[in-house]
Design goal:
The protein has 938 residues and is an alpha/beta fold. It has 34 helices and 24 strands. The longest helix is centred in the first third of the chain and has 24 residues.
């Protein structure tokens, strides 16, 4: 250190040289001269609890300080530079960094003052070798954005406490990017996190708090004891949302999509979205408002338009079940779809907002999955504003050691280096400020940011609960706690911003508006611009039908087949992939029968040619888990990618294909949100193995299969789930067909088991070619992707449609047939080949390719030709307690009863089992041979 000060004249004028040396030293100490390495080794170090950035930043500030001294008109003597004051200057800079890193740990963010904080030694003057005796000593502020370049130590500490230890606790020093940290410092430090507001701004905050509190009081008195999951204790959310939406609109956003769980939802719908209170009262009184099963009022979505300084903004509240955080990735999918529709790859025009509860944010894994997708190509949306309504209790769990293992409920956000702004909910001005910072950060860096709104829950988990039984001390304090509005109104009266009478008048006006059934959202647009809406009208009111012509002109099919198999000149294709493309060129020329990969690719190509966007995501979708697709080519020399489907025409619709990160729950929820927002697109999620859909069961149960009946939400999402018993054990065999069939009712979804390339071609095309929008679940094959018999012709692609039932194709004499085998999926080929081996002419095999909605009329027509039937069986590969047997047998029996009441249906498959399949190939083969033989021979 002494050497540095002796050479102060050197790096005072050569600051950049010394800084470059220090940068090099940090990366590789051996890369700098020995005399500099020795001196750098002696620089003051900071404990591990402080950011690793601090030793570097501290010495940089010292370099800057020395440089300023050396550039003064009168040179500073070396002896004065090496004085005790200069040594303390470095310690002050280190203390400043300590406040930036750990100030939030002593911040006044709990309105109940129950939050117990451990002492933080890093914030004590003595920890840094300073004392009260230095209070009046003037020090350089270094990188602080406090205004002056120097100030007494006492003022520096006071300003640091005001900025980092008051009602705002900012966590951002975990961010690696220095530019982002400096940007945040430039926003927080000049105003000490508490900008001075004018009377009009403060009155507006009070008006929004009045609305928030007024609705809860009114509902509490009119519907006493009814569940509403009220916002009481967290009323600052309403001015927060108001500021967020208004500022977003000012900055150019045209849409804001919001997802949130129960607490405060009704308040947001009425006071922010402008839902008519009369409609809400009707829901409390149990009035039937929609022709469906419906859902509880605090799950309902909503949309409206509000006016901002930047123009009209469309607001959308996502429908949400009780699975709390699962709505987060649904919101992201909806936002990405809206951004794609607006041709906005940056994410400026549509802003996602996720409002969380503290316990769910810390406890549910889908939160992590959603953060993980935030910067990936397939799922990024330009940054999400996360708002945690931190009630400091989850249902009845409030002890920190029970609710989480991290210090804060928001610590999971650090995984993507999101800044976290903790704020005391009883300081609405601070809430407004952090909202501005959060949105501006999102717009500046296109990354996620978290607002931790620390508040409390004045009632129990719901209004029927008595919370003091489990949280006696917390609720003893809450009973004494004045409301946020009451505290803020008193603050404004004392500051002479308003009078007590004006405050009371605000309350009366709001209650009068509620009682008269008026809209109470001030910025609501009564005649909205419909161009901001997604137009679903062409897809409404269509009844189920099996008929849909999905044929394509043969000439167009061949032209597209040529384009989709073209590879740029000089592009080095891997050897096996080259063979696949050579075969596809032969298929396009009619010299070779069509396989699965070709037919599927042509389904996408023809849809794109007809103007339909296509989006395909999932693990390994570019290549295909079983290497059949190869829609994304990789140059073997440069690793650059080429997607033929994206290069069919200059003006073609969007073709999106991305390998997803290793998630099922969040990814499937994202695609659901996307599909519910762009109705004219083919949106596909493919599981690596069908079994992996298990990890997304919440999405399947709560959204895909029931969303239309609960909320009236149409969705055309397609799920490709590889399914088939190939001897690969219990985790790689079954997509759990039985679970999907059990969820089938009211024509809610489609479940299909296609077995030929032509079938998948027409099935995928049918999904968007007809205006009906229903989720499609495809039990897609594995071995059939290359099965020599699972082929089709170009003509079969060009003509016809998807066949829900495929009749016997061999020239069997129907009069000789006395046994009928019904089946679905790849077991058909095993049955067909064994029948040929045995030379059986009395057994017909009929494939049911659509299991729901079940094609009873088509099946009846198919088997009408068999007038001499004596036995009918259903054959499946799955164990008999799984697969299609239990959920579909009544449909088949209905058909048989109409054909011949004397016939009885029998089921054949693997023995009942707890696991989907066996783990030994020898046992698998024995079971497969047994079920095939039994099906054919009885």
């Amino acid at each position: 250190m002494e050497q540095l000060w002796k050479n102060a004249h050197l790096y005072g004028g050569n600051l950049s040289y010394v800084e470059q040396l220090y940068e090099t030293y940090l990366m590789d100490p051996n890369a700098v001269p020995e005399e500099w390495r020795d001196e750098f080794d002696r620089l003051p170090k900071v404990g591990e609890q402080i950011s690793q950035d601090i030793p570097h930043s501290t010495i940089r500030e010292h370099f800057r300080y020395l440089s300023k001294n050396q550039n003064r008109s009168r040179p500073v003597e070396v002896s004065s530079v090496s004085s005790e004051h200069e040594k303390k200057q470095v310690l002050v800079l280190r203390m400043i960094n300590a406040y930036r890193v750990r100030g939030h740990q002593v911040a006044d963010i709990d309105p109940l003052n129950l939050l117990k904080r451990e002492p933080v030694p890093d914030l004590d003057l003595r920890f840094h070798g300073l004392s009260e005796a230095d209070n009046d000593t003037v020090f350089q502020l270094g990188s602080l954005f406090f205004g002056p370049e120097e100030a007494p130590l006492k003022e520096i500490v006071e300003d640091l406490k005001q900025t980092y230890c008051s009602t705002v606790g900012a966590e951002y020093m975990h961010i690696v990017d220095t530019q982002e940290k400096r940007w945040l410092q430039s926003r927080l430090e000049p105003v000490r996190c508490h900008p001075v507001l004018g009377a009009e701004e403060r009155s507006h905050i009070l008006e929004r708090l009045t609305a928030a509190e007024g609705l809860e009081k009114y509902l509490g008195s009119r519907y006493a004891g009814a569940k509403r999951f009220g916002l009481e204790g967290g009323e600052s959310l309403i001015p927060l949302m108001d500021e967020l939406i208004q500022r977003a609109g000012r900055d150019g956003a045209r849409e804001v999509v919001i997802g949130m769980a129960h607490r405060g939802r009704l308040n947001v719908l009425v006071n922010i979205f402008g839902k008519n209170p009369a409609e809400l009262f009707g829901e409390f009184e149990g009035k039937k408002l929609i022709e469906s099963s419906g859902d509880v009022k605090y799950h309902q979505g909503f949309s409206s338009n509000v006016m901002t300084a930047g123009g009209e903004v469309h607001l959308a509240m996502a429908f949400n079940p009780s699975h709390l955080e699962i709505v987060s990735p649904v919101v992201e999918g909806s936002v990405r779809a809206r951004q794609d529709r607006r041709e906005d790859p940056v994410g400026s025009t549509v802003v996602p907002v996720s409002i969380h509860g503290d316990a769910a944010f810390a406890g549910q894994g889908v939160v992590m999955e959603t953060f993980q997708m935030s910067q990936t190509r397939a799922y990024k949306t330009g940054g999400t504003i996360h708002i945690v309504i931190n009630n400091q209790v989850g249902f009845t769990t409030s002890r920190k050691e029970d609710s989480r293992s991290s210090e804060y409920c928001t610590d999971v956000a650090k995984m993507v280096q999101a800044p976290i702004l903790h704020v005391n909910g009883d300081d609405p001005e601070a809430v407004r400020f952090v909202t501005q910072v959060a949105l501006d950060y999102r717009n500046e860096f296109k990354k996620d940011v978290v607002i931790d709104l620390v508040c409390y829950r004045r009632r129990g988990h719901n209004e029927a609960d008595e919370p003091s039984g489990t949280q006696p001390l917390m609720y003893a304090q809450i009973k004494k706690q004045k409301s946020t509005r009451e505290l803020y109104a008193k603050r404004l009266v004392e500051a002479s911003v308003i009078t007590e009478a004006q405050s009371k008048e605000m309350e009366k006006e709001y209650r009068a508006a509620l009682e008269s059934g008026e809209h109470v959202a001030k910025s609501l647009v009564r005649e909205p611009n419909t161009e901001l809406f997604v137009d679903w009208r062409p897809y409404l009111g269509h009844e189920w039908s099996f008929e849909c012509d999905t044929g394509v002109d043969l000439k167009l099919l061949q032209e597209l087949a040529v384009k989709v198999n073209e590879v740029p000149e000089g592009f080095a294709v891997q050897r096996q992939v080259q063979k696949i493309y050579e075969d596809r060129r032969r298929m396009a020329a009619g010299a070779m029968e069509v396989n699965w990969g070709f037919a599927e690719t042509m389904a996408y190509a023809t849809l794109l040619a007809e103007g339909y966007p296509v989006r395909l995501t999932g693990q390994d979708v570019g290549r295909g888990t079983f290497s059949h697709r190869h829609a994304v080519l990789h140059d073997q020399k440069t690793a650059r990618c080429y997607v033929p489907l994206q290069n069919l025409a200059d003006d073609q619709p969007r073709m999106t294909i991305f390998d997803s990160y290793l998630s099922e729950e969040a990814v499937l929820a994202f695609e659901y949100g996307y599909a519910t927002t762009i109705p004219n697109a083919l949106v596909i999620w493919e599981a690596q193995f069908g079994d992996f859909a298990n990890g997304a069961q919440v999405v399947i149960d709560q959204f895909i299969t029931s969303g239309e009946q609960k909320w009236g939400r149409l969705c055309g999402l397609t799920m490709l789930l590889p399914h088939g018993f190939e001897g690969q054990g219990p985790e790689h065999s079954s997509a759990r067909l039985e679970r999907f069939l059990q969820l089938c009712a009211e024509h809610n979804i489609q479940v299909c088991t296609p077995t030929t390339p032509a079938q998948i071609f027409h099935l995928l095309r049918r999904q968007v070619a007809r205006p009906l929008r229903k989720p499609l679940v495809v039990m897609s094959p594995k071995s059939l992707l290359r099965h020599k018999q699972a082929t089709s012709t170009l003509e079969e692609l060009a003509q016809g449609s998807f066949q829900p039932v495929i009749p016997e194709v061999d020239q069997l004499d129907p009069g000789k047939v006395n046994r009928l085998v019904l089946c679905g999926g790849k077991v058909y080929y095993d049955l067909y080949n064994r029948r040929a081996e045995l030379g059986l002419e009395n057994v017909a095999i009929v494939r049911i390719e659509q299991l729901y909605p079940f094609p009873e009329a088509i099946l009846e027509e198919t088997i009408a030709q068999y007038t001499n039937l004596e036995s009918v069986v259903w054959c499946q590969e799955e164990p008999m307690n799984q697969g299609a047997w239990y959920c579909s047998q009544h449909h088949m029996r209905n058909v048989l009863h109409r054909h011949n009441p004397a016939l009885h249906l029998h089921g054949i498959g693997r023995p009942h089992a707890a696991a989907p399949a066996v783990g030994y190939i020898s046992v698998h083969l024995e079971q497969q041979e047994a079920l095939v033989n039994e099906a054919l021979n009885g």
